[in-house]
Amino acid sequence: MAQYDQLIIFYNQLLNMADEIHELVNKEMYDLILDKLSYHDKLLIQVKLAKKCAKLTDKEQEEINRLEDELREKEKENIELLKTSMTAVKLELDRIKLKSKVKKAYGQIYQHQEQGSIIDVDDSYRPTDTQT
User: Fold this and answer.
1) Looking at residue 73, what is its pLDDT?
2) Full DSSP string of 36-63
3) Dihedral angle computed from the Cα positions of residues 64, 65, 67 and 72, in that order, rounded to the nearest 10 degrees
4) How far is CA 110 from CA 68, 103, 115, 118, 121, in A?
């Protein structure tokens, strides 16, 4: 198999992977994205090695450049989508933390009321005179 053909296969795999990552971000399946990115890094190393060894014609180089540009655009879109998702997740976490803090604060107040406090003493209570 020629180096050019190998490069085309690698770039097509990277492009497909970029599409898969886009879908996984939309589905909020972040663990699977990390697995994909690990394989993505290995593919990039293979591309780099194949490009060093390849003797490409001008037409082949143009096609490789086009695929690289397409891949770059898809990855930029994925990065922007991830940033947007991370912002949404952070806002949701902040909201949940605030809600938890409020529940905890009011829960302690309610718990103290159940246990009784000096403020809750009934005025009608009078000790008996058995200590004389």
Assistant:
1) 97
2) HHHHHHHHHHHHHHHHHH----HHHHHH
3) 140
4) 62, 10, 9, 15, 16
User: For helices 3-26 and 30-53, what crossing angle results, to 10°?
Assistant: 160
Instruction: Identify residue 116 by its one-letter amino acid code.
Output: G
Cβ neighbours of residue 39 closer than 8 Å, sequence gap 6 or more: 17
DSSP for 13-36, please give it: HHHHHHHHHHHHHHTT-HHHHHHH
- Of the two residues 99 and 84, the one the predictor is more confident about is 84
Distances in Å between the Cα of 53 and the Cα atoms of 33, 38, 72 are 30, 24, 22
Q: What digits encode the pLDDT tens for the residues 51-94?
A: 888 888 999 999 999 999 999 999 999 999 988 888 887 888 88
Q: Using CA atoms, how far apart are residues 62 and 1, in angstroms rounded to an integer?
A: 20
Residue 127 region by backbone torsions, left for phi larger than 0, else alpha for psi between -120 and 50, else beta: beta
Q: Considering only the top CATH level, what class is 3-84?
A: mainly alpha
Q: Which two tokens stand for residue 62?
A: 């143009």
Specify the DSSP class assigned to residue 117.
Answer: -
